[in-house]
């Protein structure tokens, strides 16, 4: 009798196919299904030819070919499609069976699905998967959360196919209950948005401000790989800057400057606002993509304002090092803000997320993998109650050493007309976060003046609220005090 499958995968787009091949490479018997069943045959006769992968041609066929408890992984578009497949699966599943959503689902959907399926006896896992096409094939970062009863059954498969650190540690571990895994993946994508925009700002400063050639910039990014900036995104940027089009000119110059997005960066910003966490850099990176999409409007506005960018004077080597320092410091702020949001969600939902372990999940395999994620893991292992990553001695030292160059680059960019929303927002955040006193006292006075919203006093205990009749005409009644 033919051995039944260890896991079924629904969805044969690039990520689904590569994860299946990865599972097969690690000795797991996989059952593959796609709603358009012709794709099953194409896969089996193509890249899956000669493997032990089994094809399925209906949901019932898929389920019948799986060992119990059945494990079915969905690699389909987030949203309604996930719910449709869950509904299709339910009549064929039994109590204790497991559904894994490996797409970029919004975590409230995962919260809902975990609860609804638990009531039906089905264990649901929301697993964020990062690494793109290559990661899926050779080792992604995987961030599973949901019904913890399922972990013992899916752990051997997910950890086997995940990326590994230099020490052999899998970049996959249980994140937390409900939608914790998809929340962490969402923040990962938000940090990815920020990292990419920061690199683009450094690129524009060197290209338009310093007047460097693409060959020079490729060499600079290659050199930066040997520093604390070493990361996947720095690595691919060096490759991109060196890639020539058919006319032997840099291909990137022929790419239209309008950026797309699929929503996870936006979700990160929305959740930051909902939780009251100042995720300024990531939010600015989303807005930067929005501005880029206004290509026709930007063309007209550039003519209206006669926009030009002045060249930067001074020693280019010193400026290049200043840009590196500004990029490094801003990148640290991006991660710091991301972990502040993860902490707030974990405490709010009682997810009990391990922040050091989360950094390890991103150490290899994923898009934001970088050298200093090991230092982030160390920071949280040394102090699990660390609220702001910049307070850790290692990162505090980098931020302090970079500060002068960071200010220099941001100030020069504003002076000569280069937009630098993320580097500027990062240093502004640090200045605000490290200020013992901010001008919010005036803001509270304004709120009390026009809306009787009350204020606290520096000479009275916290929690006591006061209202002033500023004009003598407003009366003494105060509004109810609350924060959204």
From TrEMBL:
<comment type="subunit">
    <text>Homodimer.</text>
</comment>
<dbReference type="Pfam" id="PF03446">
    <property type="entry name" value="NAD_binding_2"/>
</dbReference>
<dbReference type="InterPro" id="IPR013328">
    <property type="entry name" value="6PGD_dom2"/>
</dbReference>
<dbReference type="InterPro" id="IPR006113">
    <property type="entry name" value="6PGDH_Gnd/GntZ"/>
</dbReference>
<feature type="domain" description="6-phosphogluconate dehydrogenase C-terminal">
    <location>
        <begin position="181"/>
        <end position="471"/>
    </location>
</feature>
<comment type="similarity">
    <text>Belongs to the 6-phosphogluconate dehydrogenase family.</text>
</comment>
<comment type="pathway">
    <text>Carbohydrate degradation; pentose phosphate pathway; D-ribulose 5-phosphate from D-glucose 6-phosphate (oxidative stage): step 3/3.</text>
</comment>
<keyword id="KW-0521">NADP</keyword>
<dbReference type="GO" id="GO:0004616">
    <property type="term" value="F:phosphogluconate dehydrogenase (decarboxylating) activity"/>
</dbReference>
<dbReference type="InterPro" id="IPR006183">
    <property type="entry name" value="Pgluconate_DH"/>
</dbReference>
<keyword id="KW-0311">Gluconate utilization</keyword>
<dbReference type="InterPro" id="IPR006115">
    <property type="entry name" value="6PGDH_NADP-bd"/>
</dbReference>
<comment type="function">
    <text>Catalyzes the oxidative decarboxylation of 6-phosphogluconate to ribulose 5-phosphate and CO(2), with concomitant reduction of NADP to NADPH.</text>
</comment>
<dbReference type="InterPro" id="IPR008927">
    <property type="entry name" value="6-PGluconate_DH-like_C_sf"/>
</dbReference>
<keyword id="KW-0560">Oxidoreductase</keyword>
<keyword id="KW-0570">Pentose shunt</keyword>
<dbReference type="InterPro" id="IPR036291">
    <property type="entry name" value="NAD(P)-bd_dom_sf"/>
</dbReference>
<protein>
    <recommendedName>
        <fullName>6-phosphogluconate dehydrogenase, decarboxylating</fullName>
        <ecNumber>1.1.1.44</ecNumber>
    </recommendedName>
</protein>
<dbReference type="Pfam" id="PF00393">
    <property type="entry name" value="6PGD"/>
</dbReference>
<dbReference type="InterPro" id="IPR006114">
    <property type="entry name" value="6PGDH_C"/>
</dbReference>
<dbReference type="InterPro" id="IPR006184">
    <property type="entry name" value="6PGdom_BS"/>
</dbReference>
């Amino acid at each position: 009798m033919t051995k039944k499958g260890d896991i079924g995968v629904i969805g044969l787009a690039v990520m689904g196919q590569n994860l299946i091949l990865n599972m097969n490479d690690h000795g797991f018997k996989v059952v593959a299904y796609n709603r358009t069943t012709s794709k099953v045959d194409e896969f089996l006769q193509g890249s899956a030819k000669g493997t032990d992968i089994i094809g399925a041609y209906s949901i019932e066929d898929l389920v019948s070919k799986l060992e119990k408890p059945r494990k079915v992984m969905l690699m389909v578009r987030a949203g309604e499609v996930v719910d449709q497949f869950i509904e299709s699966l339910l009549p064929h599943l039994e109590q204790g069976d497991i559904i894994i959503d490996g797409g970029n689902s919004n975590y409230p959907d995962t919260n809902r699905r975990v609860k609804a399926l638990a009531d039906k006896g089905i264990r649901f896992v929301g697993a964020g998967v990062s690494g793109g096409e290559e990661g899926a094939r050779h080792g992604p970062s995987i961030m599973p959360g949901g019904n913890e009863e399922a972990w013992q059954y899916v752990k051997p498969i997910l950890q086997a196919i995940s990326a590994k650190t230099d020490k052999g540690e899998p970049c996959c571990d249980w994140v937390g209950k409900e939608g914790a895994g998809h929340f962490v993946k969402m923040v990962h994508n938000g940090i990815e948005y920020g990292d990419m925009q920061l690199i683009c700002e450094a690129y524009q400063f060197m290209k338009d401000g310093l007047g460097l050639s693409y060959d020079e910039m490729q060499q600079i990014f290659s050199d930066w790989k040997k520093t604390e900036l070493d990361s996947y995104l720095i690595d691919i940027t060096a490759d991109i800057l060196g890639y020539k089009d058919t006319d032997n000119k840099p291909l990137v110059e022929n790419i239209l400057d309008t950026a797309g997005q699929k929503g996870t960066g936006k979700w990160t910003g929305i959740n930051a606002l909902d939780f009251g966490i100042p995720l300024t850099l990531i939010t600015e990176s989303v807005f930067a993509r929005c501005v880029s999409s206004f290509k026709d409007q930007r063309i007209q506005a550039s003519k209206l304002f006669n926009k030009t960018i002045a060249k930067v004077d001074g020693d280019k080597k010193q400026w290049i090092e200043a840009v590196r320092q500004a990029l490094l410091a801003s990148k640290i702020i991006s991660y710091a803000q991301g972990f502040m949001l993860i902490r707030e969600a974990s405490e709010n939902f009682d997810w009990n997320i391990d922040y050091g372990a989360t950094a390890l999940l991103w150490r290899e395999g994923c898009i934001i993998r970088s050298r200093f994620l090991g230092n982030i893991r160390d920071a949280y292992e040394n102090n699990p109650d660390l609220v702001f990553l910049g307070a850790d001695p290692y990162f505090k030292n980098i931020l302090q050493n970079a500060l002068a160059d960071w200010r220099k680059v941001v100030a020069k960019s504003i002076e000569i007309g280069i937009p630098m929303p993320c580097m500027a927002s990062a240093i502004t955040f640090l200045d605000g976060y490290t200020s013992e006193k901010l001008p919010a006292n005036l803001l509270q006075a304004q709120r009390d003046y026009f809306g009787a919203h009350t204020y606290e006093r520096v000479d009275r205990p916290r929690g006591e609220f006061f209202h002033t009749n500023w004009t003598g005409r407003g009366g003494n009644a105060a509004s109810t005090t609350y924060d959204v």
